[in-house]
């Protein structure tokens, strides 16, 4: 991770950590870089945004930078991150930009850059952007005369993405009562149109964005609202998206959460039965629940474990040709259809399994026993020193031995804070608490913990 760009773009509080000047300079660099990379072609870059008030401000700043460097800026307006990826790779754009801070509160925002293949931008280019932001690169020339870029309304691209999603469904959703929580974000412009077109009786909540209510008490980070709504309205299933709709969590008809791990199991098992699970493997992160691995072992399905972040999941899938991967948080990647996590696509895939197998979601999910999990964040003086301390590691080894095949312990450094996360999964909550506290006690004894 760089100084500005993390695993999912340049993100921070609008006009505090991420300013209009930053956005302008990112636009200047991208317009120049992709113009230089494709000599003899007019550089074409497509931009989408979520519903935050600051998204308009950043859109205009990016457009100014892009056009000043000679690129044409195509505006999708309010749309989802996966739609930007889709449009880039199917419409011949040189690059895509999504303005969003995903599941963060409204006052944050972010710039996600997508390369010409519809994938998250490679680290080598991010390093060059960061040098330019810090004034360590040379000046970028301004375009002049007829080389100055133009701005193009490209709402048609978003509509083509909606059509693509509709084309993926294998069956009609007629007579299915479906609830959608759009998080007052990007899905508000797309999700209902897709489900309506497929014949569902669609009930939508949190689809009235006002610039300040994105992710506020709603969406995939506040699933309780959808859980209550599904039960009260007698829906067959519910789906919750985050601010830019690249993740999806589901709710069964009884109001129970079906998270990313359960979705990967349900879809992975079905894909194996259909002969469509390439390599007979699913790509997970190290934070997936122990119960998922137990269930996959039982079904004879293999798995890979990556660092946390859908970027790393996709890298593994791409390198090895796997077709399904994701995170517990609901970033699910179906590589046959998309190069990023796509919340609406994920909900369509879950509907497909329910309809093809003629089983309700609660029955499909009941095959996985999710293990209780306790995770505590420990503020430390030095993350690396705390995690690699010999006595801490010895205690972790003792816990690992005690848990045997019935659980696991994981220590992980935060990427953004002076924090070590201690997580234990075991058959019961009290066992989790006991072992987490044992390891933290050793960290305290060794003087690593900030008081």
UniProtKB/TrEMBL annotation:
Gene3D superfamilies: Alpha-D-Glucose-1,6-Bisphosphate, subunit A, domain 3, Alpha-D-phosphohexomutase, C-terminal domain. GO terms for biological process: carbohydrate metabolic process; peptidoglycan biosynthetic process; UDP-N-acetylglucosamine biosynthetic process. Activated by phosphorylation. It holds the Pfam family PGM_PMM_I. Residues 375-440 form the Alpha-D-phosphohexomutase C-terminal domain. InterPro entries: A-D-PHexomutase_a/b/a-I, A-D-PHexomutase_a/b/a-I/II/III, A-D-PHexomutase_a/b/a-II, A-D-PHexomutase_a/b/a-III, A-D-PHexomutase_C, A-D-PHexomutase_C_sf, A-D-PHexomutase_CS, Alpha-D-phosphohexomutase_SF. The modification Phosphoserine is found at residue 102. It catalyses: alpha-D-glucosamine 1-phosphate = D-glucosamine 6-phosphate. GO terms for cellular component: cytosol. Mg(2+) binds at residues 102, 242, 244, 246. Keywords: Isomerase, Magnesium, Metal-binding, Phosphoprotein. One of its GO terms (molecular function) is magnesium ion binding. Signal peptide: none annotated. The keyword Isomerase applies. Binds 1 Mg(2+) ion per subunit. Belongs to the phosphohexose mutase family. NCBIfam families: glmM. PANTHER family: PHOSPHOGLUCOMUTASE (ALPHA-D-GLUCOSE-1,6-BISPHOSPHATE-DEPENDENT), PHOSPHOHEXOSE MUTASE. This is Phosphoglucosamine mutase. It comes from Candidatus Lachnoclostridium pullistercoris.
């Amino acid at each position: 991770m760089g100084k500005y760009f993390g695993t999912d773009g340049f993100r921070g509080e609008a006009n505090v950590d991420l300013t209009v000047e930053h956005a302008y300079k990112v636009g200047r660099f991208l317009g120049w870089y992709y113009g230089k990379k494709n000599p003899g072609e007019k550089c074409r870059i497509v931009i989408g945004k979520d519903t935050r008030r600051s998204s308009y401000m950043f859109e205009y700043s990016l457009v100014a930078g892009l056009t000043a460097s000679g690129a044409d800026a195509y505006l999708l307006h309010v749309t989802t991150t996966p739609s930007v990826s889709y449009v880039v790779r199917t419409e011949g754009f040189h690059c895509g930009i999504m303005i969003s801070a995903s599941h963060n509160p409204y006052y944050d925002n972010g710039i996600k850059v997508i390369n010409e293949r519809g994938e998250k931008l490679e680290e080598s280019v991010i390093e060059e952007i960061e040098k330019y932001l810090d004034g360590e690169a040379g000046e970028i020339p301004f375009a002049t005369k007829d080389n100055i870029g133009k701005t193009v309304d490209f709402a048609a691209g978003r509509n083509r993405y909606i059509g693509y999603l509709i084309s993926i469904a294998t069956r009609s959703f007629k007579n299915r009562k479906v609830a959608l929580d759009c998080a007052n974000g990007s899905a508000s412009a797309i999700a209902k149109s897709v489900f309506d077109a497929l014949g569902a009786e669609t009930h939508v909540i949190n689809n009235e964005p006002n610039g300040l209510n994105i992710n506020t008490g709603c969406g995939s980070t506040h699933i309780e609202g959808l859980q209550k709504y599904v039960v009260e309205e007698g829906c067959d299933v519910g789906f919750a998206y985050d601010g830019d709709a690249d993740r999806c969590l589901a709710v069964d008809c009884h109001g129970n959460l079906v998270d990313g791990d359960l979705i990967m199991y349900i879809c992975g098992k079905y894909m194996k039965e259909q002969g469509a699970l390439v390599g007979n493997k699913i790509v997970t992160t190290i934070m997936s629940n122990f119960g998922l691995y137990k269930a996959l072992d039982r079904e004879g399905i293999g798995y890979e474990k990556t660092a946390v972040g859908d970027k790393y999941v996709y890298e593994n899938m791409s390198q090895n040709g796997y077709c399904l991967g994701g995170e517990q948080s609901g970033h699910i990647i179906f590589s046959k259809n998309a190069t990023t996590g796509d919340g609406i696509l994920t909900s369509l895939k879950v509907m497909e399994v329910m309809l093809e197998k003629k089983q309700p979601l609660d029955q499909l999910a009941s095959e996985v026993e999710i293990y209780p999990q306790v995770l505590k964040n420990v503020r430390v003086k030095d993350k690396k020193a705390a995690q690699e301390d010999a006595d801490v590691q010895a205690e972790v080894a003792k816990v690992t031995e005690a848990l045997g095949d019935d659980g696991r312990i994981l220590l992980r450094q935060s990427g953004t804070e002076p924090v070590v996360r201690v997580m234990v999964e075991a058959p019961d909550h009290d066992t989790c608490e006991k072992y987490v506290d044992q390891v933290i006690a050793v960290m305290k004894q060794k003087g690593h913990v900030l008081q």
